[in-house]
Amino acid sequence: MSIARTNRLTPYLFLAPAGIVLLVALLYPIGYMIYASFLDWNPSQRIGEADWIGLRNYTNLVGDEAFRESFLVTLKFAAVVVGLEMVLGVGLALLLDRKIRGMSALRTIFILPMMIAPIVVGMMWRYMYHPTVGILNRTLGDVGLEPVPWLSSSEWALTSVIIADVWQWTPFIFILALAALQSLPRSALEAARIDGATAWQQIWHIKLPLMMPVLIVTGLLRLIDAFKVLEVILVMTNGGPGLSTEILALRISRTASEFRELGEAAAMSNVLLILLLVLTVLMFAYGKVAEARADRLRASAAEGAV
Amino acid sequence: MENAQRQNPAFYALLAALVVMSAGPILLMIATSLKLNVDIMDDAGSLLFTPTLRNYETVLCNVLWYAPEHVGYCDKTFGRALGNSLVISLTATAITLVIGCMAAYALVRFRFRGRGAVSLTTLMMRMVPPAVLLVPVFGIWTFQFGLDGTHAGIVLVYVAMNLPFVIWILQSFIVQVPIQLEESARIDGAGPMQVFFLIVLPIIKPGLAAAAIFTFRIAWNEFLLANALSNRNTRTVPVTIVNSLTEYDIDWGVIMATGTLLAIPPIIFTFVASRQIITGMTAGAVKG
């Protein structure tokens, strides 16, 4: 594919501007952060004045109950959110995979929640969850039910935050699952229908297995994003009540700006980064394996159809 | 199968419910932004109210050509923030697109030493969350680059944050450009830059549109890093919204108007270019 007669330097010339920006503003900061995680450093100091304390920031994290709590909250949030969104999104895609007039208008409306600012999403939900003026408690009151302490009780807060995320991101899974569904080989579905497979059998034995590679990659992508969520929760609860919704990203930002412990915040950032790195590697590795498997499946399904 | 099947009514009820659930909160925000605080507090008439633009006048008081009479003291925060947000997001988007495009082209069309490593690094950097960049970017921008509180500082982070994704998604569009077109241009004597700008760029316009929307959206919506790197004069709209949400007495009408103003550009993009957005989303995920 390469074009003959190019100067050996040309590719580097094309890459240079992006490369320099990524080096200066992304790779360098990450290296800087790894270094900072070994320091006792507060925001009024230059980094050179901070004391080297070795692994103490990390060992402190292990003993830090608040950090452990926030780590657990993050895992719980990410797992529940991705689980719910996958089930709902894929389910809806299977239900709505028909020729409907106005499908593209529908998809447009579904993307809206993902496009607007997380800050605004948080604000909208905080308003809806408002104990007195919020539409949710008003509606509950209208039908004679007790108001729910959506954001003000530590039992409910995480659930409320999860609902908002499910509202915002289920459409993402839905759209990707629908695209996967519509690119399935017709011959395989056709063959199954001729063999008299019921709708359920088609879903379980043909559609879902063929969609699996895309679904797994989508799920992992969503999981990575769920670990990055910050602003929606910041606006709705700011991590509270207590630590009930204090996800890791929020903990990092508070440790840096409120507690002014930059070294410790850097150590936490590293933990989060390693977690995400593992997930990313997993996603690529699985994507490759599953693609090969689906190709085989597709080939044999096509053969069966002949 | 080719004709639309007749669906049962429950199916349409489900569709209607989904539309209401998806758009409801957004419509509620817009409706609230058009209400007076009296109407917001009064729970009986939550759907029956006379729409008013007062909240918008309060928010935009210093950019309006007239002085709204109900605004006693004009708070200039928002007008300034709107200007900052526009300058920062547009600049970041333009820079990201130009240099991201060039990098993507090099990765697709040239074979060179280190290509695999560059490609992999780019992919990996997609997963770095803004929260992780908070500490180092604050330290470096403040103490080494002297960029804290400047537009340039925020633009630089946004360009870096968006580049990996933009490079990734543009690669999948550039691969589809027929190589023969480029080769015949080269035979006619065009240099690599000319081929890139005159042949490749026009063909990958849909990809550019998708990448532009994604970049603009992230820059326009971002809060955390903007908050850490801006000062009173360079604050962006999301920062002002969060600031007013932490006030003890929240003026819901005004804040909903601010939120609506912030949401308008992304909403317009969604309606104008939903196909490009969906293409971008699928290209970004499926080929991951």
What is the CATH topology descriptor of chain B?
Answer: MetI-like fold
What shape does the CA trace of chain B take? globular
Count of DSSP helices of chain A? 12
Rg over C-alpha atoms of chain A, rounded to the nearest angstrom:
24 Å
CATH topology-level name of chain A: MetI-like fold
> How many structural units, i.e. domains of chain B?
1
Oligomer: heterodimer
Pair with the biggest interface: A-B, 99 and 103 residues
Report the end-to-end length of chain A measured between terminal Cα atoms: 35 Å
Based on the structure given, which CATH architecture of chain B is correct?
Answer: Orthogonal Bundle
If helices are DSSP runs of H or I spanning 4 or more residues, what is the number of helices of chain B?
13
CATH superfamily of chain B: MetI-like
Average pLDDT reading of chain A: 86
Low-confidence stretches of chain B: none
How would you describe what is shown here?
The complex is a heterodimer of chains A (306) and B (288). Chain A has 306 residues and is an all-alpha fold. Chain A has a single domain, classed as MetI-like (MetI-like fold). Chain A is built from 12 helices and 2 strands. Chain A has a two-stranded antiparallel ribbon with strand order 1-2. Chain A is globular, with a radius of gyration of 24 Å. Chain B starts with 8 loop residues before the first helix and ends with a helix. Helix content of chain B is 72%, strand content 0%. Chain B has one domain (78-286): MetI-like (MetI-like fold), CATH 1.10.3720.10. Chain B has helices at 9-33, 37-41, 54-59, 77-109, 115-125, 130-145, 151-174, 179-187, 192-203, 205-221, 224-229, 237-245, 252-286. By secondary structure, chain B is mainly α. The mean pLDDT of chain B is 84. Chain B is globular, with a radius of gyration of 23 Å. At the A-B interface, helix 1, helix 3, helix 4, helix 5 and helix 7 of A face helix 1, helix 4, helix 5, helix 6 and helix 7 of B.
